[in-house]
Specification:
Elements (H helix, E strand, L loop, with lengths): L63 H9 L6 H38 L39 E2 L2 E5 L8 E3 L4 E5 L2 E7 L6 E3 L10 E7 L7 E7 L7 E8 L2 E9 L9 E6 L9 E8 L4 E6 L2 E7 L10 E3 L2 E3 L2 E3 L3 E10 L5 H8 L9 E5 L2
Antiparallel strand pairs: 1-2, 2-3, 3-6, 4-5, 5-18, 6-15, 7-12, 7-18, 8-9, 8-15, 9-10, 10-11, 12-13, 13-14, 16-17, 18-19
């Protein structure tokens, strides 16, 4: 027995060594225009050097007056203005180079910033959420953490994939080797195969059966024969209570049964049966209650009362809560075949209004829910 996306821009590459001009221009060649002087040309304003005798002018020289008139007929350039212009062009060239370099730096810096910020130019004023689910404090210190942590809706205990998490209390339910979890839209169910190893067991008893209590689950039954118990409690010689499917007097029925005697005899068991409803391959909410003051048990199918029965009390047999099986005469039997979810336990006998709330997956605030799994 088991208990149970933009990339950052790179810097502008330097020109190859020995290539000269840089930025893609061949050595010794800077393009004309944009303030740059062209390639070196002969100066049109530079006079030819004086020619002496025997150098092509003949033996006679014109009079000095004619030489002066000939020389003065060619205008002389303003050497100072040319020097000033050349210096200005050089300054402009240096300024342009500095500007281009600064622009490259700005572009690279902007690209790196864009990459770091995730490529978004919209401000994000939401707090960063830590792995624990709690928002971390912002850098400005003006935002405070949300005091309400997000609700954990995982079906199992963290790090324990085969241990159902108790959403209300602290009692986990361990899956047997033949049971498994199934994921559906926005919910999880536990699935049983109708075999001896297909069950789940709590760590302890979920309710004190000597006092008022309610047990409820959504169930889907596949089998049309035999005894199939969805929820029970006890691992001694007998169950204390069991809730599920059984063929009663030849009819397929839902049943809620309690044991009133300490030996688990059939004669000391009391039950409520619903045999006029569909019991196979149909989701149904089964709810059983025990009112310790009135000494009555009752069975609801969905939110309709199927019936009540008087009892002398419920025997407090030893052992924990069980899913998918029940204890009969010291052996395990009544293996459930199909899935279950929305398993709840209350330490009070629910009223009609409260059971109707369960049908709509709502718990009455006045109800004292002590445990819940797969909600």
């Amino acid at each position: 027995m088991t208990d149970g996306t933009d990339h950052p821009h790179g810097p502008q590459p330097d020109p190859a060594s020995g290539s000269g001009g840089g930025y893609g221009y061949p050595p010794g060649r800077i393009p004309d225009g944009y303030g740059y002087p062209g390639p070196a040309q002969p100066n049109p304003y530079q006079p030819e050097p004086a020619q002496g005798p025997g150098q092509g002018f003949g033996p006679l020289q014109p009079p000095p007056q004619q030489q002066a008139e000939a020389f003065s007929s060619t205008p002389q350039p303003d050497w100072q203005a040319l020097a000033d212009r050349t210096e200005a062009l050089q300054r402009k060239r240096r300024t342009l180079k500095v500007g281009i370099g600064a622009l490259v730096v700005v572009v690279v810096a902007a690209g790196a910033g864009f990459f770091v910020l995730g490529g978004s130019d919209e401000p994000d004023d939401k707090p960063v959420v830590a792995t624990s689910g709690s928002p971390s404090p912002s850098g400005s210190g003006e935002q405070s953490a949300d005091p309400k942590a997000p609700e954990d809706d995982s079906p199992t205990v963290e790090g324990e994939p085969n241990l159902l998490r108790d959403r209300t209390g602290r009692m986990g339910i361990a899956l047997g080797p033949g049971a498994s979890l199934g994921e559906l839209a926005k919910r999880t169910e536990v699935r049983f195969k109708g075999t001896a190893e297909s069950y789940a067991q709590g760590a302890e008893a979920a309710v004190d059966v000597t006092k008022s209590f309610t047990v409820s689950t959504r169930a889907y039954n596949v089998s049309e024969t035999g005894s199939r118990m969805a929820v029970s409690q006890g691992d001694g010689v007998s169950y204390s209570f069991e809730l599920g499917f059984e063929v009663v007097n030849g009819k397929k029925a839902w049943v809620f049964r309690v044991q009133t005697g300490d030996k688990g005899q059939a004669a000391t068991a009391q039950q409520v049966v619903a045999d006029n409803v569909d019991t196979v391959r149909n989701w149904v909410l089964l709810t059983g209650t025990y009112d310790a003051e009135k000494k009555t048990i009752a069975l609801w199918v969905d939110d309709k009362l199927a019936g009540q029965a008087p009892v002398s009390g419920v025997w407090a047999g030893p052992g924990p809560l069980q899913l998918g099986r029940a204890r009969h005469h010291g052996i395990w039997s009544a293996a459930w075949d199909g899935p279950l979810d929305h398993v709840r336990v209350f330490d009070t006998a629910l009223t009609q209004e409260a059971v109707t709330g369960l049908k709509n997956n709502k718990v009455d605030k006045k109800s004292k829910q002590t445990h819940s799994w797969l909600i």
